[in-house]
Amino acid sequence: MGDEPRDVEVVRLRGSSWDHPRGHAPMVATAAAYHDGTAGRVSIEWVVRSLREFGMLSVQELAHRFDLVVIDHPHIGTMAESGCVVPLDDFVDADTWATIAANSPGGSHESYHYGGHQWAFAIDAACQTSAWRPDRLSSPPTTWEQVFTLAQGGRVMWPLCAVDAAASFMTLTVERGEECARTDEYFVSRDVGRWALATMYDVARPSDPQCLVANPIQVLDAMAEGDDVTYSPLTFCYVNYSRDEHLGRHRVAFGNIPALDGRSGPRGALLGGAGLAISATSDAVMDAVAYATYVASAPVQNGLYYRAGGQPAHAAAWSNPSLDEPSGHFFSGVAPVLEKSWTRPTGPGFASFQNAMIELFAEWYDHAPAPTTFLDKLDELYRSSLATDPARVRH
Q: Which residue among 15, 55, 191, 297 is least crowded, i.e. fewest CB within 10 A of its CB?
């Protein structure tokens, strides 16, 4: 980050980001700019963790090792209840929070709110969308029936590794009209659970078997680099694949997920994205909060953060034509999906349940034709998580 003035006492912060240009590069770029903007007083080192670790690694452990942690919102309740991160509204003035909240795409900002406090800045906005090659597919499917038909040609690839199969299962249940985890009795009703598994199975069966171990990045790489894959019905969106400077051979477009027949339109795409939280054990909480506020601000989100390869979480970027056009209309294509997206529960028991659910979904394909035992186990895991939820036990 350049030479540091010898007469300045340097504040050294460490952060944990996730290992993809969208997740890591903008943190490195903003850290360098912030270092320069503070005349060398604040130095920030960013260390990557894998995409799988981003969703599953213990956030309490990360908060003890780092001052700043880029997180997935289902961990918020666990982090808040454990006291490992600071409630940011205790450090940021109400006007700043009101401005940030009013300019949050979809439920990005609200997803980091728990127990009356805000525990992270929304810095990256995303949800599950469909993805396709616009040079090969001018009109992507609008219904699941159309997806089934297209899949027979072998050019559909749905990322259905355990993590993403679990995510897609949740999206499908909401699409069918039932939000999962809304009752203590079961995670999702049997009819809806069977339909969701059958939908995944019917698309995966004629597809390349690699779909069963692929994550979104691998599917999007296949779509951008080759000609065998032209469409994915549900995948987390990545602006990197649609912008002009994408290094792949082909641009990928993102937009609405397929709808059920007879419905006015799709809804319930699983909310993703990333938030930036501050460790309660940091020796420089105020400096960490100041940097995080800077990263979440409109000028940075609408400028440096995007230029460095990030996917902003501020309306200034999502409504900016000068970003939308060179990104292949990513923002205007994804915004309607994001506005109708579904936010997973953020209670303290859900993150551990989600990890157990992901392990269970490693075998979803084998159970899909006769899913009763699989769905029994899913409900058992869910009820167990409720019984050990510290918030429920306390009350």
A: 191
* Inter-CA distances, 338 with 33, 95, 151, 257, 269, Å: 30, 25, 25, 11, 7
Position 1 scores a pLDDT of 47
Cα 125 vs. chain centroid, distance in angstroms? 7
Place of tokens 């994205």: 273
Domain assignment of residue 3, yes or no: no
CA distance linking residue 77 with residue 91, whole number of Å: 19
Closest to 15 measured CA to CA, from 30, 1, 5, 2: 30
pLDDT score at 367? 97
The HSE-up count of residue 197 (CA atoms within 13 Å, CB side) is: 24
Map 244-290 to HEC letters. Answer: CCCCCCCCCEEECCCECCCCCCCCCCEECCEEEEEECCCCCHHHHHH
Do 180 and 75 fall into the same domain? no
Domain range for 180: 128-270+348-395
Whole-angstrom distance, CA of residue 366 vs CA of residue 36 = 54
**Residue 331: CB atoms within 10 Å:** 26
133 and 228 assigned to the same domain: yes
Q: How many domains does the chain have?
A: 2
pTM over cut 0.90: yes
Which pLDDT does position 261 carry in this prediction?
78
Q: To which residue do tokens 């699983």 refer? A: 270
As given in the structure block, the two tokens for residue 356 are: 């157990």
Nearest residue to 249 (alpha-carbon basis) of 273, 228, 278, 271: 228
